[in-house]
Amino acid sequence: MGKCMIIGCGGVASVAIHKCCQNSEVFEGIMIASRTKSKCDALKEKLQPTTKTVIETAQVNADNVDELIALINSYKPDVVLNLALPYQDLTIMDACLATKVHYVDTANYEPVDTAKFEYKWQWAYRERFEKAGITALLGSGFDPGVTGVFSAYAMKHHFDEINYIDILDCNGGDHGYPFATNFNPEINIREVSAKGSYIEDGKWVETEPMEIKRVYNFKGVGEKDMYLLHHEELESLALNIKGIKRIRFFMTFGQSYLTHLKCLENVGMTSIEPIMYEGKEIVPLQFLKAVLPDPASLGPRTVGKTNIGCIFRGKKDGKDKNYYLYNICDHQECYKEVGSQAISYTTGVPAMIGAMMIMTGKWNKAGVYNIEEFDPDPFMEALNKWGLPWEEDFDPVLVD
Ligand code: NDP
Question: Whole-prediction pTM value?
Answer without folding.
Answer: 0.94
